[in-house]
Amino acid sequence: MKNVVIKIWRFYVDGFKSMTIGKTLWLLILIKLFIMFFILRIFFFPNFLNSVTDDESQKDDYVSSQIINRLP
Question: pLDDT tens digit string along 54-69?
């Protein structure tokens, strides 16, 4: 099993070493993911549950009441 994992690891390492434009594309993908998950989350997705309370059981009650109240 260990030998198979090593072969797979070497396969990917050799593949990334021989890339030319692929490295640039991977860099762009990583930058895009960073922007999506860290920068946009800070500005556009505030944590509403912390504004309600810090107690976990009250957060559970708040979420369940919101779900029940929004049902048609």
Answer: 788 888 888 888 889 8
